[in-house]
Structure formats: structure tokens, C-alpha cells
Amino acid sequence: MAAVQWRSRGRNYEAELQRCHPEVALVEFGDYHPLKPIMVTDTKTRRGARKGSTSSSSSSSSSVPPDPLSSMLDGTDPLSMFAAASANVVFQDLGRKRREKEEEAVGPDFEPWSSKRGEILARFTTTEKLSIVTAVVSVGKAPSPGSSAVSEKVRTRLEELDDLEEGSQRELLNLSQQDYANRIEELNQSLKEAWASDQKVKALKIVIQCSKLLSDTSVIQFYPSKFVLITDILDTFGRLVYDRIWTMCSDPRPLPDSFTVEDVNDTAKETCLNWFFKIASIRELLPRLYVEAAILKCNRFLNKSGIQETLPRLTAMIRGIGDPLVAAYARAYLCRVGMEVAPHLKDSLNRNFFDLLGTFRQISGESVRNQLVLQRVEVPEYLTLYSPAISWILQCIAYRAPEPLLTEMMERCKKLGNNALLLNSVMRAFRPEFVAIRATDFIGMIKDCDEAGFPKHLLFGSLGRSLACADPPESERLTILNEAWKVVTKVRSPQDYINCAEIWVEFTCRHFTKREVNTVLADIIKHMTPDRAFEDAYPQLQSVIRKILTYFHDFSVLFSMERFLPFLDMFQKDSVRVEVCRSIMEVFIKHQVELTRDPVILNAMLHICKTMHDSVNALTLEDEKRSLALLIIGFIRMVSFGRDFEQQLSFCVEARATFCNLEPVLVQLIHTVNQLAMETRRVMGGNHSRKTAAFVRACAAYSFITIPSLSSIFSRLSLYLLSGQVALANQCLSQADAFLKAAVSILPEVPRSISVEGKLRSSESFLLDFINNFLATLLVVPDHPEHGVLYLVRGLLNMVQDYTWEDNSDAKVRVYISALPLLAAMSQETYLYSIPKVDSNETLYGGDPKFLSEINKLCETLIGQILDHLKALGRDEKVAAGSRLIRTSGLTRRQGAVAFSLFGVLLAHGDLRNNKLSQLAVNLWNLSHKHGYCETRISVRTLESIKHQAQQPNMTHLSDTVQRLTLQSRT
Amino acid sequence: MSVTLDIRLKRANKVYHEGEAVTGVIVLVCKEPLQHHGISLSMEGLVNLQLSSKSVGVFEAFYNSVKPIQLISSNIEVAKAGKIPGGKTEIPFEFPLQTKGNKVLYETYHGVFVNIQYTLRCDMKRSLLAKDLSRNCEFIVHCQPQKAKVAPTPVNFTITPDTLQNIRERSALPKFLIRGHLDATNCVISQPLTGELVVENSDVPIKSIELQLVRVETCGCAEGYARDATEIQNIQIAEGDICHGLSIPIYMVFPRLFTCPTLETTNFKVEFEVNIVIVLHDDHLITENFPLKLCRV
């Protein structure tokens, strides 16, 4: 084919722009316009609408049609309707439970047992070996349906029970704590299995066995945990029995939640009664007590006052337990069940507590002492074993209790000689407000306590916990802190010390200034540094930091605490250190609103960020890196030196040196520097002085040497381009050239596929996007005087040609096609856009015919290449068709698409007055329609648009062309 | 071909009183129609007496057991020989619980040497090739409530080394003082035995305090009578070294079937006692005995 002669169409951008603007017509008030604001004249809030959803229905003034969006939501909007409906369903489902709750009058403010459970399990552990005595639970004979004689049944069952009590016992020795827990869990499982397979006697046996374990106080340190594990089983059992009887009554229809005795049928009553008789005949005290407590709720089936009568009886029964610890926990269990089943029966709770006080002297009794000696347990440690039980009992009593009752309780405790153990539980269980008001009293009581029994730091710990939630009277605060800290600081063991100090930090932060907090920190450092005690106290130290961060959001204050950074230095384990830094950074990002240049903050923050950065190594996870980088970026964005640009730049230099391992941070730094350059330009109003010019060049240099250290090719490319644009805007021509050249030179490095969010994807589309963007920039880049005309464009096109594109892809040709508009734009007399104070090629060459012909030649080459490609596609198609390959349509479709886009370019940018060009356009049109892959709608619209253009002056020639473009009807 | 035969009483707790009617249904479940030679139902109340080998020698005990005393007996034919359709068939029945003559219906009691038991027995006769079917069902008889009012008779007790009888070395005994009371010794059988106990002081720690319920059964026969005391149940009320000076509740539910109102007839007697057993840590066993009189109101 003879070379095509390219002539760019002359453009008058201004005129075109004018034409594109439709006439501006003001919208009259009342006229309809889709974007006109809707006048809300009436707003009512609907019930059930969720927060954040459109909850107001709006009715507009009559002349304005209703907003289609809000009219959709007229009535209840569908989402909240669903939500309301499902809430109803849920409500019905939960109805039973909820109503029970209401009846029980235990609100959500009652800390449930479940939350205590984990705490106890974690706190009371042992490394000693445990033993468990269990009967080998014989594979229970399923009750033979044949013997309906009551006596036989009862007899066999009782025999089985005896069997369990006397014979076939086995002692498992040397269990570790974990084994023990597992064993108990096994029992729990076998209880459920036995129940499911209708072996009720076996189930009862298991429960009796388990509760028997509670009378064993060997390895006493583990007792509270054991209690938790075993009462879990008891709870399960209680639930099973209750549910079973419940279902027995719900034959025609389920029993209402507020059922009365009359609603229960005889069979259910008889079954229930049977359980109670059976349990009443359990030989040992402790199992009888626990199992009856477990099924306390079942009394509801028998009579109204059952629970009311049983609770005091069980409470009195506990008096028969000799071991004070076992008794205390039995009381705790009874209170727990009582709270669950009948929280309104406060009397027995109080009774329990008074009984407990009554037996308090036993704790220091002889048999206890002997036991402790035997087990080599210290008294203070022994006493702490009580605290979960007593705290729980007191919590139950204190729940919504009137003030006088609490005062009375306190008085009683006082009477017992300020028993430290009790005092501790009182402080933990009673409302923090109650304790806070009397904080001074409590301190006095704590002081009067006997030092030997219960360590005072625990008492102060409990007091501190209350004071952290409620405020004591203002005038007493300082005295309280002084008194408390006097004791805390004297605690010898670092572990005890930090446990207590950690609690008081909150009080200090809450009510005092940095001076006091600083003192506290200094004290902590003093205590924790010797022998590297901090190594064992990281969780507590972390919590100290957390508490300080909750109350101090002003970082200049925070970092001006002398001891804060030394405190951070105590975190020497890498993972913890990073964790702490991270939490500080998070608070910083969240609460630092204003940009800062405060050297104190900057120094400290740089230090913290550096710590985070330095934790990155080869093994760090991608996610971890990303989140660290985000935090550091957050910091960098908060740094501003105002008009002191040079300092800002030197900060960036420093930051680059510090954070060189985190790419996102480097990217951010480059952006910051580029922004700095643009800011300088703005300040100078576009006219750089000698000094600022040097500065922006320095900025460019910064970017230029930073970019190559990035590994992601696309960030490099886009940053080169961006920095080039910034350099150009700042009249740094040679720098801009260097950036763009660098971008072109790394193009061949772009891999064919890149990983996007962990998946390999073809890089082609990204590359095309970039190149198009690049081309748009090239319009304003003036040619380098030493290199040839259109040096960069040529360079880019060469790179494109040499790049190994994917097979079967038109990407290369697409680049060529998109280069044509650029070239056409370059040949205009005035360019579409330009950069102030930068002379583009339009002024450099001034429309020199040589320059234009260079451009035209280049265009012709490109078109030649494109046409060759089209031909090649056609040829391949023939070959494929010849060899009877079926998948040929792909080629023709591609051919059509490429031809059509070239047609588009010709139409928009080529001078179609030239016969050859217009002939080419017509050919391309026909080629693209040859195989019928063209979207008819687009073709029709194109034709319409051409016709429309043809009406413009200077464009009349188009009408001839149109006549030659035929529309292929799809048949 | 499977068939199940069952007797279902109307009352869930199976408790009946004299003069009432024992009602219920016989339930037959079979897949196919069933041929039979008649179904009969009988009610019987028996007192079984047995002599213990302790009081009369092994051989006498073996073959000299006393003849059972029949309290009530009746028999009805439920269905004549014929066919029962497949599926579930329920045949209702009703027996009046009435004695003949001046016999008394004693309360159901399961003991060791005395057993008072009431049963329903359903028999289904079948052809030679198939086995006869039968089914037993025990029901429980409670005697009529006692008319006279029961006046509670509280009993106070004090146990010290000096109050004890039947000991070998009084000097080896540690010192202790245990006080307490039972709210009543003539108890209503449906109410628990209650009371209180206080360990005022004790030189040796206490290991355990238990309530032992004992039945005393007496059988009269030609050669005289045999009287035996056996344990019914043992309930622990205190475990370990309990707090001194603090009252501990005495509380025991009388087990059903194994207890009945105290019974005295010409041929046999059933009486109950409770022992408070205190076990000291050096395994000294101190027992205080209280005879009980049980009644039903």
C-alpha cells in the first residue's frame, strides 16, 4: 500500500469549546430540575428506622415533583422494614428468655458468672499433680421397659447408687492440671451422652461423683478453678432436668413462661418429685447440697413457695461443711443459682453472708493451719483463694441493694476487726460510687488491717479499681493518691508492685496532671528496672501505656513527661515494643488534629516510628508491613513546618534515611516533597526567585534519587511522571526531561503480569493507562535543544515497539493509535494546554513546516504500522479459516475493533479534505463493518455525529464522506 | 409376631387409698390381629414375712418362712377368648379397693423381713404354640390418714462422754459436748425429720455427723418372734471439723416405699428409729438413738 499522506486537521480549540458549551439558562424557581434541592417542608421521624438510614419522609412543595429517591422510601424503607421484621422474629424466639429475665429483675448491669469464670480459671492454676477419684461408670443398663413395678425400679436404681458409692472406685493419680480439666470435660460429655441415651441414673451418678470432688481440698491452689469446672457440669445437669420436665408438660402446647403449678401435669410432677426424693437420699452432704441446688429451679413445677423454702434450708445445710473454703464456695454456688432462679429472694443471700462471717474464725483455726503446713501454702496465698467466692456473694448482695444495707455490711466487716479478706471483697463487689465516696474511710480501714493475713497491696489494688470507675470527692483526691502510693511504692515483689501500680495509674491519669503521672512513671521505672523485672510484666506495663493514652491526647504534654520515653525503653522484647509503639501511633493519628512542628513531638514520634520500622525484617508479613507503613505515613502527614520549606525538606531527607525499608512510606515522602515544590510555586506566585528555584530543584533531586529505590515498577513509573510534571510546573526543564527519560527507559522492565491483591494479572491495561497519561504530558514538554525533534515521543514509541507485548494482543497498535491524537495536537498553532512560564514546542518551533512534516512523517509511519497489523490480522484469519479452525471470529472481531478506532482517530484528528485520507477512512469503515461485529448503535451514532459536524463551517467536506459510509444492516 | 401387653394406671403416682377405685387401662399393641384364649386381670395385696437367719438359724429361715398374709384379692375376666384387632387396643378396668371382713389394708412397705405389696397382674392365655403373656404392675396403697391430731413432741439431747453407755474405756474418750434437739419424734411421714445440733466443743476434731434411719421389723411365729434392726439410709449432715457453737440443721426426708406409718399387728411389727452418729477424727463412733413414731395425716 502506498504510504498514506497524513495531514492533521487544524483545530480551533476555543471555538470548539464554545460550541460544546450549551447556552446557560437559569432554572426558574419551581421549574423541575433533577439536581435542584428538594425542599423539605415537613419532617417526621418514623419508628423503627435505623440510625443513619433515611429516617425522614419528605414531602416537597407542590410545584416540585417528589425526589425519586425519597419517594422510593415512602412508608418504611425496605431495609429497615426487614430489620424490624427480623427483630420481631428474634423477639419471639427470645421471648421466653427475655421474659424470664424481666421476671428475674437482673439487669445487664449485673456482671454474670460467665465473665468471672475465665478470670478464675486463668488465675488459680497449679503445677502440682492432681488426683481424681471416680467410679468406673458402668455402662448403665438401660431401664428395662418390662419392669414397671415401681419398687423394682427404685431398688435397682438405689442399688446402682450404692454401687457407685461403695465399690468400683478408681483413683487417677498424677494428673496435670490440663489432664484434670480434660477429665472433667470428659465427664461433662458423658453426662450429656448418658442423658441423651435416657440413662438418667448414670447421669445422676456422674453429677454426684463430680460434686464429691469438691470436698477434696488437696492441691488447694487449684480449688477455685476446680469449682468452676465442676459447677459447669452441675449447671448442665440442672438445665437438662429442667428442660426435660418442661417438655413433659408441653404436650398439647408449650408451657407459658409464667406458668403456675396448676399448669403442670401429674406425670411431670411425679417425675420432678422423684428427682427430689432421689437427691434427698444421697448419702454425702456435699453432693446432696450441690445437686439439689443445681435443680433448684425445678421447684417451680411442684409448688409456688418451693424455691423460697429450699433456699434457706440449703443455706443452713452449708453450716455442716467443716472446711471453710469448701463452705465458702458452696455458698457462692448457692448464691449464683439463687440469683439466677429467684433474684428477688435477697434474704437467703444475706443469710449466707452472715453465716460466712460467723464461721470466719475457722479460717485461722487449727485444722486449716495443719492443712496449709501439709500442703506448704502460705496464709496470704490461701486467703486469696477465698476472694472469688466472697466477691461473688457480695456482688449478689450488693446488686441493686439499698444504700443502708451496704453500710450495714460495712459495719459488720468493721466489727470483725477489719478483716482484710472481707474488706477486699467489699471493695470489689460494691458499687464503685459507693466505695469512691468513702475512699478515705476505706484507706483508714486498710491501714488498720492486720498485715500478716492479706497483703495490703491487694487491698489497695481493689480500692484503685473502684476509684478508676467512680470519682471520690475532689478535695480528697490528692490525699488518697498520696496514701495509696505510699503503700504501693513499698511493695517489694515487682510483680505485686506492678499489678497494683497499674491500677492506680488510671486514677492518677484521670484526676491529675502530667506532673503526677510523671512521678508515678518514674516510680514504676525505679521498681521495675532492677533485675530486669519488667520482662515479666509486659502486659501490665502495656496497660499502663494504654491508660495514659486514654487520658492524655495532647502529645506535646505527653512527650514532655520526662519519664515517658524512658518508660517506653522498658519494653525490650521486640514484639511488645512494636505493639506499644503501634498503640501510641494509633492514638496519635486519631487525636492529633493539627499539623505540628513541635520538636519534642517530632523527636519522640520519629523515635517511635523508627522502632516500628526497625522491627520489619524478612519474615514480617505483608499485612503487618502495610499497617506499620500506614501508621508512619499518618505521622508524616501530620508534620508541617509551615513556611519553613527547607526544614520540611530536610525532615523528609531524614525520614527517608530512617524509613528506607517501607516502600509506602517512601512513596508518601516523594508525594510530600512534590507537594512541597508545588506549595513553593504557589507561594511565589509562579515566579521563582533564585533561591526558590534552587529549592525546587533540590526537591526534584530528592524525588529523582528516591524513586529508583522503589521496587514496584508502576509506582516508579507514575512517580516519575508525576515528579516530571511537578518539575515542569516549576520550570525545571532539565529535571523534567530527566524524569520522563527515566520513565521511558524503565518501560521495558515492566513485567507482563503483576500481582494485584495476591492474584497475578496482566499488566497490559495498567501499562496502556500509563502510556496514555504519559502521552498527554508530552504535549507540553519542549524538545531538548541537543536532541532531535520529538525526542521523547520517538523514544517512547521505540520502547513500545521493542517491548515484548503479549501474543495475540493489539496493545502495541492501540498505543500507536493513541499517539496519533498527540501528534495531531502537536501540529496545531496553539496547543490545547500549556504550562505557564514554560515554552512548549508551539513557541519553540512556531509552526515550522519542517517540524510539521516531521510530525506528519511520524504519523504516516504509525498508520503504516497499524495498517500492517490490520493486514496481518486479516491474513491470519484466512490461514486459520483455511485450516478450518473454528476460532477465527476472534481475529476478525479484533480487526474490526482496531479499524474502527483508527477510523475514529482519523475522523477527529485527520484532515479529511485530503482525498487519500478520506479514502482510507472509508476503507477502514468498511473493514470494521465487513464482518458485522460492529455495534450498530455506535455506527449509527457515529454517522449522526459526522453529519452534525459536517454542518460546521470548514467541515462541509465531511458530508461527502458520509455519503460513502454505508451502514450494514445486520441480517 | 410381636405383641406387647402393658398396664397403665390412671394416676401418675399410682397411689390409692382404701375405698377408692383402682382404675386404668390394659394396653395391647400388636401389628396384626391376635388370637387369644382369654385375658384376665387380678389384684392382690400380700404381706410377706421372712425370718432372718440371725434370729432362727439358716435352715429354719430357709423353709420355715412364714406363710404370706393375704390382704386383698380379686380377679376379673377382661376379655373372653377371641381376636384382638391389629394396632393399639386399650381396655379400661376398675377395681374397688375394698377389703372383705375386718381385714385392714396396710400401707405399702418394702422392707427386709416384712414386705407389704399390692400388685395388678394381667394374663393373656394363648394357644399352645404361643407363650402366654403376663404383666405385673405394682400400685401403692396409702392408709387412711390418722384421725387423732399429732402433737409434736420435741426432744432435747445432750451428748457428753458421761451420757454414753456401752463403752469400754471411758478414760480414753476425748472430751466433747454436743447439744441439740429434734423437733418431733412422732413424725408425719410426708414431712421431713427436722431438728438442730450444735457442737459446743470437742477436743478431737469431728470427721462426720450422720443421720441413720433404721427400721425395726418384728415377725411373730410359732417359736416366738424375731426382731431385726436394719439401716434404711444414712444421711450425712456434717462433714469435717465444723464450726463450734454454730447450729447445724438436722433434716431428713423419709424415703417413699421404704418407710410406712409405724405398724403393729398380731403377726408382725414395723417400727423406725433414727440414730445420730458422730464420727470423731480418731474414729470414735458416738451414736445417740431415738425411736420414732411415724404416722400419716
Helix content of chain B: under 10%
Give the termini separation of chain A.
Answer: 32 Å
**Relative strand content of chain B:** over 45%
Percent of sequence in beta strands of chain A? under 5%
Mean pLDDT of chain B: 85
> Which structural category fits the helices and strands of chain A?
mainly alpha
Chain oligomer state: heterodimer
* CATH class descriptor name of the largest domain in chain B: Mainly Beta
As for the number of domains of chain A, it is: 6
Number of strands of chain B: 21
Structural category of chain B is mainly beta
Characterize the largest beta sheet of chain A: strand count, sense, and whether it forms a barrel: 2 strands, antiparallel
CATH topology call of the largest domain in chain B:
Immunoglobulin-like
Question: What's the total helix number of chain A?
Answer: 45
Q: So how many helices of chain B?
A: 2
**End-to-end gap of chain B:** 50 Å
Q: What's the CATH architecture of the largest domain in chain B?
A: Sandwich
Give the overall average pLDDT of chain A.
81
Question: Explain this structure to me?
Answer:
The complex is a heterodimer of chains A (971) and B (297). Chain A contains 45 helices and 6 strands. In chain A, α14 (346-358) runs antiparallel to α17 (387-398) and α39 runs antiparallel to α41 (849-882). The model of chain A is unreliable at 40-68, 70-78, 83-104, 135-150 and 163-169 (pLDDT under 50). Helices cover 3% and strands 57% of the residues of chain B. In chain B, strands 2, 5, 6, 9, 10 and 11 form a 6-stranded mixed beta sheet that branches. In chain B, strands 14, 16, 17, 19, 20 and 21 form a 6-stranded mixed beta sheet that branches. A 4-stranded antiparallel beta sheet of chain B has the order 12-13-15-18, with no helix packed on it. The mean pLDDT of chain B is 85. Chain B has helices at residues 53-56, 58-63, and strands at residues 3-9, 15-17, 21-30, 34-36, 39-49, 69-79, 82-84, 87-96, 109-110, 114-124, 133-142, 155-159, 176-182, 186-188, 193-202, 206-221, 224-239, 247-252, 263-264, 268-280, 285-295. In chain B, β10 (114-124) and β11 (133-142) form a beta hairpin. Chain A binds chain B through residues 148-152, 154-155, 215, 265-267, 269-270, 273, 276-277, 280-281, 283-286, 288, 313, 316-317, 319-323, 326, 355, 358-359, 361-362, 365-367, and chain B through 6-7, 11-14, 110, 117, 119, 135-138, 140, 205-206, 209, 233-243, 246-249, 251-253, 255-257.
